[in-house]
Amino acid sequence: MSVMATAVAPPLVIATQPWTREAYRTLPEDHPYYEWEDGELIPMPRPRLRHQEIMGQIYAALLIFLREKRSGKVWPEIEVDITETATYVPDLAFLLTEHFDRIEDGLRIVGAPDLVVEVLSPGTAVRDKSTKLQTYQRAGVSWYWLVEADTLLISEYKNTPDGFLLTASVPPSDSFAPQLFPGFVLNLAELMGEKQVEEEDQHE
Questions:
Q1: Looking at residue 55, which CATH number applies to its domain?
Q2: Domain region containing 70
Q3: By C-alpha distance, which of 54, 127, 125 is closest to 92?
Q4: Strand 143-148 and strand 115-120: pairing?
C-alpha cells in the first residue's frame, strides 16, 4: 500500500541582516505575526484569551457608539506604518473621518491614528509603556489608551507639546469617559461580567 506524501511548509527563516519594509510585507499571514522596527522583526507573543476578550469588548462598544456618531472608524490589529522605520500592529486603532486619507489600499494606516489602544500583556507591557509610547507620541498619535489586562485599569494619555500627558487613570470600579468621544462611557468590568463580583468583594 502506497503512502501519500504530505507537503510540509518550510520553516520561516529570520534573516540576521536588516529587514526592509518590503521584505516584512512578504511574511506569511498565517505565521505568528511580527512588528517591524528599525530594520528588525519584533516577534509578538500570541495573545491570551483574556487579552482578546478585553480588546473585543472595547472594540464592540466603540463600534456601537461610532455607528451612531459617524465621526470615524476603529479597527482591531491593523497594520500601522507609524514612521518611515516602524510598522506596528496595535490592538485597536481609530481614525477620525477627516483622516481617512491615511488608509492605504484598504489594508493599513500610513501615519498616525487619532487613537491607539494597547491591552497590556506580560510579554508586551514594557514595550507598550516605553518604546511604543515614545514612537506614538513622536509620530503624532493624539490619544493613547493603555489597559491593564489583570486589573482592567485604563490609563488615558493625551499628546501635548511636552509629550504624552496622563489625563485619566480609571480603576475598574469606575466608568471611563474618554475626552476623545464626548458622550461615550465605558465600564469595562461590567462588560466583562466582573462588576458584580467586585462589588460583592467590597461588601465582605
A1: 3.90.1570.10
A2: 48-78+92-101+113-203
A3: 54
A4: parallel
The three-state secondary structure class of 51 is helix
3-state SS record for 135-147: HHHHHCCCEEEEE
- C-alpha 67: how far from its chain's center? 20
Give the SS3 label for residue 174: coil
Determine the Cα–Cα distance for residues 80 and 35; give it in Å rounded to an integer. Answer: 10
| Spans in the chain with pLDDT lower than 50 | 1-13, 197, 199-200, 203-204
Express each pLDDT in 17-46 by its tens digit.
799 999 999 888 765 689 999 999 998 888
What is the count of structural domains for the chain?
A: 1
Evaluate whether 118 touches 145 at the Cβ level (below 8 Å). yes
Cα dist from 63 to 148, 167, 187, whole Å? 21, 23, 15
Evaluate whether residue 18 is within a structural domain. no
Q: Residue 181 pairs with which residues in a beta bridge? A: none
Give which of 48, 52, 43 is closest to 14, Cα–Cα.
Answer: 43
Q: Are 164 and 144 in contact (CB under 8 A)?
A: yes
Whether residue 2 lies inside any domain: the answer is no
Count CA within 13 A, CB hemisphere, residue 158.
8
